[in-house]
UniProtKB/TrEMBL annotation:
GO terms for molecular function: ADP binding. InterPro entries: BTAD (IPR005158), HTH_77 (IPR058852), NB-ARC (IPR002182), P-loop_NTPase (IPR027417), TPR-like_helical_dom_sf (IPR011990). The lineage of its organism: Bacteria, Bacillati, Actinomycetota, Actinomycetes, Mycobacteriales. PANTHER family: HTH-TYPE TRANSCRIPTIONAL REGULATOR RV0890C-RELATED, REGULATOR-RELATED. Residues 19-160 form the Bacterial transcriptional activator domain. This is SARP family transcriptional regulator. SUPFAM superfamilies: P-loop containing nucleoside triphosphate hydrolases, TPR-like.
Length: 900
């Protein structure tokens, strides 16, 4: 800037883009000329962010007042354009409050009234929308003597008729889940510096109320502070700490699923996912950390309000750029570090990259000056410290100044946000052109990724993986990408603040659709390769490779659906059930249900989608729906590459088996054995032989099924496939558990270990339960009690009430053997009141009544005993028997006679 003297006085000579009004008009022109409505909406928001306050507030002259009125009218015009675009892309809830206030300020503006009516209607407030029209019509008549114009009338008619085109819903965003276990998150990888006072305040606030929210600007260290508090306080929570990372989510509908995943919990039968979370936490002592809530704040607030109301032992710690605004919330505002703490953080991180770095060797006050220039924001400090590997502290100060960080950077945002944005942009500008291109492309990942994925999705034409690795190494060195180790494999991630920066710039470059589509295609093809790899000796390798990519698989599916690429979505769903269905759960069944509604029945993979949906319904105990779906697809052959667990006819056989017709199921599976032999498919043959053995055992014909089980073991061992071996060993143990209980127990133990090694939660759970049940009758009852505690916890997490019910039946008989007569009576009566058969045989029940006495036994008939109470009673009773003292007193013979 410079002052120049001219004939009429002085003129300030400056670049036009240094003036807010010119910058505002420049961005508005970009927005109005943009063809992408999402990008246009963001540009309008950016323009309005530049406009701060009323023009010339301290001046009051006719000329200034006229100019002020003109400028405010110009801004209102932009607001109206922004509202139109925001409504078009589904942001009605975001603009509703502002529209209400603007309508009150401009009560005769028909365009504004129409926008408010649409926002109200799309927010489920149809009555309010119609009332807004009624008031507007009355106001126009009273004050101007006119009727509403044609445009406002058209909006009114669309609302009255429920015209589906008028709401213009935006596509549903994808659902993501954290890929890192909370135990790893609580383990420090770098030192925790500063915020000592805030740690104490958070711990104090947690003692005062059930919910504490850490607020503050992005990059101020909210997440790190929350994890540090969780690490220090974890011993206070007997059921542990669950870390829920919400940053990857793009829609509030995914919040409940994401929290369930953090708890290692699956949706329970007969309950929605939100109810499943609440029921699981109701009696548990857990610290739940929900990180980065701001973009899904309404959904988070709704769920957490219910959790703190119904789960009295749960403490919740959240991080968000805004409070959740629910009862019981304590807010702790996280400030930047002090200069001294920021200086220590800078020195610590600089020394990590340059071991010879010492503060005393730097020019006096240089590091403190760097920290002040970035407002002592931890992320900005760490980014600046990373530059010390290639620059002096004096050079860093000079570079910060040239990028506008010194006094706030871009106008129109908060000072700390200015500094944070400038720090990220500065690090981005230091990248080579090729590194910049890769960094922006990497922002399409929903979570972490490996080198193959980075190259497959983001690699340039003609490059090989080593080229991508070189660029990735540069990004790691410059602190734009972090390295993570998951199950011993190297993966990479991007901090959420940096990811948001990358996505914004990728969108501005018009490349989001291109790389999001490449991302979806890559993960679909990877899932298809994994589906094949799961059927040989490399199953464990594929599981360890694919499980951390669950969030990326979800993102791929949602992208395919958003692009209406049904073929791609079907291919993904066809490949996933065997990978995820027996491990994380049947969430992909929800995807299949969505696909059924948009897929033609003649599509080659239609039967596959129906089969996946049917398998999900079966897993949740909805046998009627499972049967209906399976019969819908039974006449159609699933397409190539279909996961075996998705065959509709198989689901129908399983439904029939669990409904009690074991003979029909046996006949079906014997036919499938013949077909599997003809197809020379060893894994399918093991599966069908396993089913024949199980059906034979259920019919009381173990000798009939024994050849099938023995063949399954031999064949499974030859494949080296852990799941196949687990199933085969289990089937043989199932048939031998009465005639050779010691051998059967060993087989169950092997089956559980094999399934657990590949995270096959269903098979590991059933094998563990059978091992405990066999010990309870034929072996060490105290060891059985210990194992059944594990079984209860396992099925609790999985959310499988059918298997949990089976475990409780075994436990009832075990407690009778151990002499816990009151607990056994409680569980017996609970089963009877639930309309289910007693776990006890007549002679066992007679023994129980004799030992308790009739009056004491009858008292249990009137006790309250829902499923949660049954599990709690069983767990409490079992814990009494696994204490060292009780162990010594009861082993080996126990105080009562053995009842088998």
């Amino acid at each position: 800037m410079a002052l120049a003297r001219e004939s009429g006085g002085y003129v300030l000579q400056t670049d036009a883009m240094s003036v807010d009004l010119h910058r505002f008009r420049h961005v508005v022109r970009q927005a109005r000329g943009c063809q992408d409505p999402l990008q246009a909406a963001d540009l309008f928001e950016r323009a309005l962010g530049i406009w701060r306050g009323e023009p010339f507030p301290a001046l009051d002259t006719p000329w200034i007042n006229s100019l002020r009125s003109t400028l405010l009218g110009e801004r209102l015009s932009v607001v109206l354009d922004r509202n139109d675009v925001a409504l078009r892309v589904g942001r009605h809830s975001e603009v509703l409050v502002e529209l209400t206030a603007a309508h009150a300020a401009h009560p005769l503006d028909e365009r504004l009234a129409g926008q408010l009516m649409l926002a109200q209607y799309r927010s489920g407030r149809q009555a309010d929308a119609l009332d807004t029209y009624r008031q507007m019509r009355q106001r126009l008549a009273d004050e101007l003597g006119v009727d509403p114009g044609a445009s406002l009338d058209q909006v009114h008619q669309q609302i009255l008729s429920g015209d589906e085109q008028s709401p213009g819903r935006a596509p549903t965003p994808h659902l993501v889940v954290p890929d890192r276990p909370h135990s790893a998150l609580l383990r420090r990888t770098t030192s925790f510096v500063g915020h000592t006072h805030e740690v104490a305040r958070v711990i104090e606030s947690m003692a005062e109320g059930p919910l504490v929210t850490l607020t503050g600007v992005g990059g101020v260290g909210k997440t790190r502070l929350a994890l540090e508090v969780a690490r220090r306080e974890q011993d206070r929570f007997s059921d542990g700490v669950a870390i829920c990372e919400l940053a990857p989510l793009e829609h509030g509908a995914a919040v409940s699923h994401t929290i369930a995943t953090a708890l290692h919990l699956q949706q329970q039968q007969g309950l929605g996912i939100e109810e499943s979370v609440i029921e699981y936490l109701r009696a548990r002592e857990v610290l739940l950390v929900a990180d980065n809530c701001e973009h899904v704040v309404e959904a988070v607030a709704q769920l957490l309000a219910r959790i703190i109301q119904h789960c009295p032992k749960v403490a919740v710690l959240t991080t968000s750029r805004q409070p959740l605004a629910i009862d019981g919330e304590r807010i702790v505002v996280v400030p930047p570090l002090t200069v001294d703490d920021a200086t220590r953080l800078f020195a610590d991180r600089a020394r990590a990259g340059r071991p010879d770095f010492h503060l005393q060797d730097q020019p006096e006050g240089a590091v403190a000056e760097i920290c002040r220039l970035v407002d002592c924001l931890p992320l900005a400090v760490e980014l600046a410290a990373a530059r010390m590997r290639m620059m002096s502290s004096t050079d860093v100060i000079r570079r910060l100044d040239t990028l506008g960080v010194l006094r706030g950077g871009a106008r129109g945002s908060l000072p700390r946000q200015q500094s944070m944005s400038a720090a990220i942009d500065w690090s981005y500008q230091l990248l080579t052109q090729a590194e910049q291109a890769l960094f922006l492309r990497l922002s399409v990942f929903a979570g972490s990724f490996d080198l193959d994925a980075a190259h497959g999705v983001c690699g340039s034409d003609g490059d090989v993986a080593e080229d991508t690795l070189d660029l990735l190494a540069g990004l790691v060195d410059k602190s734009m990408v972090v390295v993570r180790s998951v199950t011993g494999r190297t993966r990479y991630g991007i901090l959420e603040t940096l990811r948001a920066f990358g996505r914004e710039h990728l969108r501005e470059a018009g490349l989001t659709d291109t790389y999001a589509a490449r991302h979806a295609t890559y993960y679909t093809e990877l899932a298809e390769r994994a589906a094949t790899g799961l059927h040989d000796s490399q199953e464990q390798d594929w599981v360890e490779r694919m499980m951390p990519d669950y969030d990326n698989l979800r993102a791929a599916f949602e992208r395919a659906m958003a692009d209406t690429d049904t073929d791609l979505a079907l291919r993904l769903v066809a490949a996933l059930p065997e990978l995820l269905g027996l491990r994380i759960g049947y969430e992909m069944a929800e995807w299949a249900e969505r696909l059924i509604t948009v897929t033609r029945p003649e599509h080659p993979l239609f039967a596959t989608a129906v089969g996946v949906a049917a398998r999900g319904a079966w897993a949740h105990g909805d046998y009627a729906h499972a049967r209906s779906l399976a019969e819908l697809a039974q006449r159609q052959v699933p397409g190539p590459g279909t996961a075996r667990v998705a065959y509709p006819a198989d689901v129908l056989a399983d439904v029939t088996f669990f409904e009690g017709d074991s003979q029909w199921a046996l006949d079906y599976w014997e036919g499938e054995v013949t077909r599997a032999r003809a197809d020379a498919d060893p894994i399918r043959l093991v599966w069908t032989l396993y089913e024949v053995a199980i059906c034979s055992g259920a019919l009381g014909k173990p000798d009939y099924g024994l050849p099938a089980a023995q063949e399954a073991v031999t064949l499974a061992d030859s494949t080296g496939n852990p799941t196949a071996r687990s199933m085969a060993y289990f089937s043989l143990g199932y048939l031998l558990k009465r005639s050779e209980p010691v051998r059967a127990t060993a087989l169950f133990d092997q089956a559980a270990e094999l399934a657990a090694a590949v995270q096959n939660f269903w098979h590991s759970g059933t094998a563990l339960m059978s091992a405990a049940a066999t010990r309870a009758v034929h072996g060490d009852p105290i060891e059985a009690a210990r194992m059944f505690i594990e079984v209860l916890d396992h099925w609790d997490r999985v959310g499988d009430w059918f298997e949990q019910g089976a475990a409780l039946r075994y436990i009832t008989r075990l407690l009778l053997r151990l002499g816990a007569d009151d607990d056994a009576a409680f569980l017996h009566c609970a089963f009877i009141k639930a309309g289910m058969p007693s776990p006890l045989r007549d002679e066992q029940l007679e023994t129980l009544v004799d030992r308790l006495g009739a009056n004491r036994f009858e008292a249990h008939r009137v006790s309250v005993s829902d499923s949660a109470a049954m599990v709690a009673r069983a767990r409490s009773s079992l814990h009494r028997f696994v204490t060292p003292r009780h162990d010594a007193l009861t082993r080996p013979n126990g105080p009562h006679k053995r009842i088998s």
